[in-house]
What we know:
It is built from twelve helices and 55 strands. The strands form 15 sheets. Strands 3-51-50-46-47 form a five-stranded mixed sheet. The protein has 923 residues and is of the alpha+beta class.
Amino acid sequence: MSLIGSLASSSQFLLPQSGGVPARRYAPTAPWSRTAQPNPANDSELLSKAAKEALRGANFINEGAAKLDLPQASKDYKKLFALYNGLKTLSQLAEDAQSKTISKTAAAELNRVFKKGVAEVVSYAKSAQFEGVRLSLGEVSSSARATSAARSAATAYQTPPLVATDQNAVSDALQGDVKFTMSIVRAGVTKIINVDLASVAPADRTLPNFVNLVNTQLQAEGLTTRFETKRVPGQERTITAGGRTISLGRDPDSWALNLKLDAAEKVTLIPVTTVPAVYIAQKAGNPDPDGNPTTKDGVLTNQFLKFQTGPDTLSPPNVLQSPQGLVAGQVWSRSIDAALTSVRSMKTLADGSVLILSDVTGASPGQQIRGERDVVLQKFDSAGKLLFSRDLGASDEAFGMSMAVAADGRIAIAGKVKGVLEGAKAGPISETKGDVTDSFVTVFNAAGEEVWTQRRGSVGDDEATHLAWDSSGKLYVAGNTSAGRGGQAAIGQSDVFLERYETDVNNNVTYSASTVVGGAGKDLARGLFINGLDLYLASNDGGSGVIRRFDLSTGSPVLQATRDLGSLEGGDLTGLGMADGRLIVAGNTGGGNINVGNIVSAYSGGRDGFVARMSASLSVSAEDRLTYYGGTSEDVITGVSIQNDRVFVTGTSKGNLPSLNQIATIDGFVAEIDPVSGGTPWSRRFTGKDGIVAPSAIAVDTAGASVLDRLGLPTGTLNVADSTRLDAISSIRTGDQLQVRRSLNGQTTTITVKEGDTLTTLADRMKRALGSQADVRVMTDEGGRRLQIKPASDGNVIELVAGPKGKDALQALGLKEGVLRQTDIEKGGKIVPADGRSPIFGLRMNTKINLDNLVEMRHAAAELAGAISELHSVYRELKDASTPAAVKAAEAARASGKQQVPLYLQKQIANYTEGLNRLTGAS
C-alpha cells in the first residue's frame, strides 16, 4: 500500500516523539526541574550558598531572582518560584542545624536567622496576590471538627465477656454468693434493688436467667434501667510466618452483660461483701532488646492491674475477661494509654474509683498535648474503665511527680515545668525560657476541673515532688531546688524545700515562703506526711535516709526532731506514712545497716527493700521495728500504700522472695507487710511481656474488691457526665487564644479563652466573630460532644488561625489551622471551590517552627518538606490553567500512545485521496 493509501485508510496515527518542531510552551520551566537553569532549587551548591547569604543578612524572598524562561508567563510564577526558593533556603538551614559538629553559638545564630526567615516567608505568603490560585498556610477542607470532646453521660455499661459460645450456658461468673445492691434515683426518689442469686440453683445461673431476675425487679419498681445480654463477636486469629500473615480463623463468639441506662435515672452499684483491693501500675517489656541503649528499640506496654487480698473465692479470675492469664487473687489486667511514659502516683477515692498521675508524650484519650511532654491526670472506675482524662497543658515540657487528695475531694498534683504554662500564677522568680525547670502545683475540684495553678522557681532547677493536705485544707509541698528558694540561699548542691498554700472561700491562694533544709551535698525530698499537727519530711541527704518532724501548731512548720537512718548504701527512700500510731518508712538498701533497732526480718543480701517502724516523736524506742524484704538478688520496693494501718508494697525482683519463687527475668511483686512481726500476711508475684515488668505505683482501697469484679461491673455511680469546661476536656488553659477570619487572609478576630469557658460558650463567641459566614455548633458523636465549624454556604470561605506559641487554643482543641470552604465537582471529576473562584491550596506549615532542639529541627524539616511539595501542586494547577484544552487533550492522547489525526491533516488526506481517485479512475 502507498503512503497516501495507508494514511487514508487509518483514522489514527502515532505522533512523533522527537525530532519534530518543538511544541509551543504555555508555562515556564519549574526551577526544581533538571532542565532549568542552575538555581538553588535544583543545585545543592547554589542552595548552600543561598543559606550562607541568608545568614549574612540576605532576604529569603527575592522575586527578582526568580527567572522565567517564558517571558509572557503569568506573574504568579515569579511569586511561586520566589516562595519556593525561600522555603528551600529554610529547609537547608534546618538541615545544617542538625550537624553534629555545629557549635552552640553557631546553632543559636542559625536558629535566630531561621525564625526571621520563617516570619519573612509567612508574611510573603499571606500578602502575595496570586491571580490563578489562592494560598493558605494551613489545611484546606470543607469542615473542621475538634478531636477534644466532652464525654457524655454513659447510656450503657457493657461488661467483659462472661460466657463463651452459648449465652444459655452456665456462667462461672454467677456462681457462689452473688449479691449486690442497685441504688437508683429517679425524680428525686431512691429505689433499692437487692440482687441476690441465693434462690437460683447453680445449674440455672445463666446470663438470660440473671437478666430476667433483675429486670423483673426493675420493672416492678417502675424503673427503665435494664440488663440485657450482648454478643461479642470472636476476633480473627493470625500468625506471622516467613514474612506472611496466616489466618487461623476466628475465635468463637462470647456473651457479656450490658446494663442499659436511662438519662432520667442515676444508677449506683453497691457491693454487699468486700475485701481490700490493690491497684498497681507498671510497664511491661524489654526496654533494650538488642543490648544497645542508644537504639531505643524497646517496645513497652503500660498496664493497670487489680488484685484482691485474702481468700480468692470472692472474685476468682475470669479467663474470659483476661485471656493473658492471671495469678491467684488477680482480678484483671488492663492495657492503658501507650503514650504514657511514667506513672508517678495512684490514689483510690471513696466512690471506688482510682486516680492515676502520669507523664505523657503523645495524645491522651480525646486530648492533644501541646508540647513534647505533659502531665495527665486520669480517673478510672473499679473495673478499669476510663472516666476522665485531664492534661496540664504545658507548652514545652512538664513532669508530674506527686498527687494528694483532700478530705473534701480536691485533688492536688505537683511536679516541674519548662517553658510557658499559661494561666499559672508565677512567683517572683520563674523561668519560662531555656532549660531551667520551675516547680508547679495545680489543684482540681472533685470533678477534675482546675481551680488554681501556681509555679515557682529560682535561678536554678526546681521541682515539687511531694504533697500533703492537713485537716484544715492547707496544702504542703516538698521538693528540690538547686539554687535556694523563697529568698533563702542554697545550702548545698541540691536542697529540700517545704512550703504551704492555702485558699479562702473565693479560691484566692496564699503562699507561705519556703523552709530549706539539707547539707553540703545533694539532698532530695523523698516523702511527706501529716498526722494532726505533726508534719514528717523524708529525704535522701547525700545517700543517707533522714526523717524530720515539724510542728504545725504555730501556723508555720517548726523543726522539732531529726532522725538519721544511716547510709542507704546505694538505695533510696520510697514511702512514708503512719500505722497504729507509729511512723512507717519504706525504701531500699544495698546493705543491712539501716539505723532502726529490733530487726524482725533479716537482710538477705544484694539489694533488699525495708519497712521501718518508729515512734511518732522520732526518738529511739523499744517499740521500733525493722523488716527487710527480699532474697539474695536485687529486690527493690518502688511503691508503698498504707491504708487502715495496713502496709502494702510493690516492686521488682530478680530472684526468689519469701514464699514467692522467681517466674521470669525481672518479676513484679506485691505484698502486705506486718511492720510489727515482719511477716507477709499476703503476697503475690507476677510477670508480663518479655518476662520483664517494672511496677511504679500502688494504691489500696480497703473495700475495693467484691463480687462485682467477677461480673465486670464497677462500684459506684455509672452514668455521670464529664465536665464541659474547656480546660477539663482538653489541654487548653485560661488565656489561650485562637483567631478566625471571615475570608481568606482577611481581618483577624482573636478569641481568648476565659475562666470557666465551655464548648458552648466558645462556640457562641466564634459565631459572633464569624457572623453569617460560618456554621459553628457543638455536635454529639461517639459518646462525646465536640466543636464543629464549617462555611455557612457555598459562597463562604473562612479561616482558622493558631494562637501565639505557648497559648494556642486551636491545637489544644485538636483543630488544624487553615481554610474551610465548600466544593463542587466539575465535569471530568475535578474538585473546585464552590464559590466559583480560583483553587485554594494549603501549605500545611506550622508558622511557629523553630530550631530550638533536635526534635524541633526534625519537625521543622518535615513541615517545610510538606509545604515545598504543595508548591509543586500549585505549579501544576497554574500550568494546567494556562494550557488550552485542545493541547491538554492532545497531550493526554499522546500519553496513552495514540492520538486522533488532527483536522488539518484529515483535510490534507481527503484531498490527496480525491486526487488519487481521479488519477486511477476509482469511483
